[in-house]
Design goal:
This protein is α/β, with parallel strands linked by helices. It is 23% helix and 27% strand. This is Endonuclease/exonuclease/phosphatase domain-containing protein.
Length: 249
């Protein structure tokens, strides 16, 4: 199934090993839940090697990268400036105070960074450092960010919420649109739908809420159909992307 997205939500996490003694984070519900809400999850220091038999971690495909290890760069800022790169830590909505990303017995510091190209900086919606969870990483916090994007993704059937509905048409809005739309809301057919919607009174379950959402949407759609003109349906090319868990050793 192909779904369209308007943003891309990602995280990076130095997990300090996926396996440690009897601990298997690939089967840890807390760990899986903490990464499942992202489109891409980059895990650092998984310590499983590149010949591992791991195929999936939660809903993600497992794909190890970065086989070549680099020494620590002492001139990170100069490197970023010379290559038109920007560090998100401390300068992006959600982390303006530059929260620490690493906690050890010797103190806290910033050792985990998200770096993007200068051209991509305007597309970053937020950056956040998550709370430190000592049971899921030795000393590092998960960091996450989200960026605007236009793409489609082919999802496995078991990853899709089948209660989805088709997106309604888009309508043109002008100076008198508010007036004609309000008039359409008083038409007999729309009034009948509003009355049916109000009969329920309150909603106590997920099914009730879903049904109410559909009814309310249909009210607005019918009023729009009666009063507004649809926008032209211009097809845009979408870049396909597979949801992948990218891990480094």
């Amino acid at each position: 199934m192909t779904m369209l997205f308007s943003t891309l939500k990602m995280c990076t996490w130095n997990v300090g090993g996926l396996f440690s003694g009897d601990i298997d984070k690939t089967q840890d519900k807390t760990f899986i839940d903490s990464i499942s809400k992202y489109d891409l999850a980059f895990l650092v220091e998984t310590h499983v090697g590149y010949n591992s038999n791991i195929k999936n971690v939660g809903p993600f495909n497992y794909y190890p990268v970065c086989k070549k290890l680099d020494c620590r760069g002492k001139d990170l800022c100069e490197f970023c400036i010379s290559h038109q790169l920007r560090i998100l830590n401390g300068r992006t909505l959600g982390d303006l105070n530059s929260n620490y990303t690493c906690y050890t017995p010797n103190g806290a510091s910033d050792v985990n960074y998200s770096i993007v190209s200068e051209s991509a900086l305007d597309y970053i919606l937020y950056f956040r450092v998550a709370e430190f969870v000592p049971t899921l990483s030795d000393c590092h916090c998960k960091i996450e960010w989200e960026m605007s994007a236009q793409f489609s993704a082919n999802l496995r059937d078991d990853c899709v919420d089948h209660d989805l509905h088709t997106m309604p048409s888009r309508y043109m809005w002008s100076e008198n649109s508010a007036t004609v739309f309000q008039e359409a809301l008083t038409s007999p057919s729309v009034i009948a739908k509003i009355s049916d919607f109000m009969l329920k009174g309150h909603f106590t379950s997920k099914i009730d809420i879903n049904e109410a959402s559909v009814k309310l949407t249909n009210i607005f759609i019918e009023a729009a159909e009666q009063s507004l003109k649809k926008t032209l349906n211009i097809r845009k090319r979408n870049t396909k992307i597979s949801l992948t868990l990218i891990c480094t050793q």
